[in-house]
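Pasting as-is:
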Amino acid sequence: MEIAILSFAHLHAWNYAQQVRQVPDTRLAAIWDDNAERGWQAAQASGCLFEPDLDKLLAMDIQAVIVTAENVRHKDLVLKAAAAGKHILCEKPIATTVSDAETMIAACRKAGVQLMTAFPVRYSPPAIRAKQAIEAGRIGEVLAIKGANRGKMPGGWFTDKAMAGGGAVMDHTVHVVDLIRWFLNKEIVSVYAEVGTRFHEIPIDDCGMLTMELEGGVFATLDPSWSRPPVYPTWGDVTLEIVGTEGTISVDAFGQNIDLYNNEAKAPSWENYASVMNGGLVADFVRCCTENRPVSITGEDGLRALEVALLAYESAAKGEVVYRK
C-alpha cells in the first residue's frame, strides 16, 4: 500500500510519516504541502517525493492519504482526495463545523472510500484494558467519569480561531469524548461548560471545564486545557477516573514511561516503553483499507466528538446547559 501525506501543518504529521514506514508492505510515497519549503523538508527527511501540485499527487498510483492540515482545511482536502478515489485518515477534529463534517462523510460514502478519524488514544494499552474491564462488568454499572486532557500550548495556527475553529477546548475535548463514547457505547446528550484564557496571552481559549450528561443518566466531567508548562516532560496527558457501582478504574494513557533526568538537556523527560499509539492507529488504518473492511474509527465518530466541543462553546457563550439536537 502506498500512502501520501497532505500537509505538514499539524505537529502529528511527522510521527505519522515515521509510523507509515514501520507498517509492513506500506510505503510513504509522497508529500504535498501548500508551504513548499516545509513540504520539501519533510519529504527530504522522510525519503519520499515532494509534489507541490495537489492534483498531480492525487493522480498518482497511491491508495490512501493522511490529512494533517490546519483544521479548517480538512474539508477541502478530504473532498478532493475522495473524488480521486483515495482512502483517508483525517486528523482530529474532523472539521471545524458540523456541516463541513457531514459533507466530508457524505462525499466519502458516495465515492466508496474509507474515512477514518485520527483518535490514537484508542490504541493506548491502558485505554484498551479499561474498555475490556468495563465490558466485562468488572466495575458494575458505570455511574460517572472524570477526564482530563492537559497539554502544552502549541502556538502557531492553533491559536487562530479562523484556522483552528477553537482553542484548547476544540483541540483536547474530542479525544476524551471519543474515549467515553467508545467505552460506554452511549451518546452525550447535554453539555455545560465554562471556557476561558488563563495560562497564556493568546487570542483564544486555553482552558475549560465541561460537565456532560450521557444517555441513561451517566455524567462526565472534563478538563481540556493547554496548561502544561514548556518544561513538562511530554506534550501533556490523558487521564480518566471511571466510577462504577462495584469499583473504579484509573486510566493514564501516557503512564507507561520511565522518568529520565537529563543533566545535559537540563530537563526531565519521559521515555516511553509501551506501544506507540500513532503506530496502532496507522497500522489499523492500513489493515482496514487493504482488507476492505470498515475502519475502526469512522467519520461519524469524528462528527460526534466535534459536536460536543461545539456544544461546549455554545454553553459557555450562553452560560447555561445546552442539549444535543
